[in-house]
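quick one
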Amino acid sequence: MNERRFLLNCPVDLITPNDALEKVEEAVRADINFHIITINPEMIMNAQNNSQFLNIINNSQMNIPDGIGIKIAFKLRNVVCENIRGVDFARRLILYANENNLPIAFLGAKEDVINKACEKFKQDYPNLNIVYKRNGYFDNDDEIISEIKSANPKILLVGLGSPRQEEIIYKLKNNLQGCIMIGVGGSFDVLSGTVKEAPKVYRKFGLEWLYRTFCQPERIRRIIPALPLFLLKCIIEK
Ligand code: UDP
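structure w/ uridine-5'-diphosphate:
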């Protein structure tokens, strides 16, 4: 399974986690910049009214499907789509960096969260070469871009929420060489242990969003109306 399909003008790569990692390995070998987006219905809906974001989504190197909404949208077209959770793929990239001694950088989340996450990474992955870490609360993008450029990572995880994380990665593309870059949303909160991961049963049925909404009820405003509207638009498009 490795096919590119479009939902509401946004490309989505139907790919398994193993194949996605293989593509990452190819990019590392070729020493090219490689932007990965973990795409979900909220992002696709946002891109409908944000041409700059739509352009970023269309110019990334791989958009992996993250979220039950994407899976349902493809099911409506009789297309099989495997969900790849952003946080799981982030873990795989960290493991890959550790095993291959690739310099890695982390940008995003609150100061105590990113520090806690890095402490955990160092414990779990003793060879991990962290060349840069910074919290995600800053105003001057240029300063951060220049710091990351100096650190020269080969893997960069950015957790600022969307579309901010994709926008800064887009800017970074012109400043880095041979770097795998991925927006990881709230993954640092989970990886640091600050936010509890959804229990297995929720994950099995693709209902993490429901669990996260229980834990953070304010998220309901983001999901509704984005998810139903997304599915409705996908049905109309079909
Ligand atoms: N965040 C940040 N800087 C900001 C706003 C948010 O670093 O200016 C972080 C926030 O601390 C959280 C993540 O971005 O760790 C966003 O998480 P959210 O749950 O909104 O993202 P999702 O996983 O839904 O994409």
